[in-house]
Amino acid sequence: MESKNYLEDLNEIKTMMTKSSRFISLSGLSGILAGIYALIGAAVAFYLVSNSTRGYLILDGDIFRICFAILLGVAFLSAITGIYLTTKKAKKNNEKIWDNSSKRLLFNFLIPLVAGGIYILIILNQERYGHTAALMLIFYGLALINASKYSLGDIRYLGITEIILGLICAIMPSFGFWFWVFGFGIMHIIYGAWMHYKYDLK
């Protein structure tokens, strides 16, 4: 009996330490919706490019600007949805949305992501856009792995998957669009569903 109480106390202490050092209220549902936004955005971009006069993207074309705006729209919608659902979950768990753990999570997520975004813009400006999808996947994967130290460890596995997809995509850059769809669309839905059933439905 005493041994059982001892183990329960240890588990409670471990849970308290985890909550104090990691932000654990990330919403799985926001991951599912982010994946759906990515698939819708990709479908619209594919339709526009397929029905354009050239049938492919060029940097100084109107279709590229529209596709870039769609990309920003997907990122914005995903961020807003993530903030809303995560805030809602944090309130339900009586957890602060903006404390040291969430600040560390956001800061460490943004470092590789911003660096990668700037690098991609630089090579786009140099008209070297063949590896754009691969670089987006790789830097996003690095951002997830870097952030996983300050949140749920499961994020690391999504990050590793994104990096692997990015590396394969670098070998086959002509399939970049489809790797992007799989990495940012399908994988987010799978990951979000896994997180939702594992953590949100408890």
UniProtKB/TrEMBL annotation:
Please provide the record's keywords in A-Z order: Membrane, Transmembrane, Transmembrane helix
- Name the residues that span the membrane: 23-48, 63-85, 105-123, 129-148, 155-173, 179-197
Work out whether the entry's keyword set contains Transmembrane: yes
Q: Could you confirm whether the keyword Transmembrane appears in this record?
A: yes
Q: This protein's superkingdom?
A: Bacteria
- What is the recorded name of this protein? DUF308 domain-containing protein
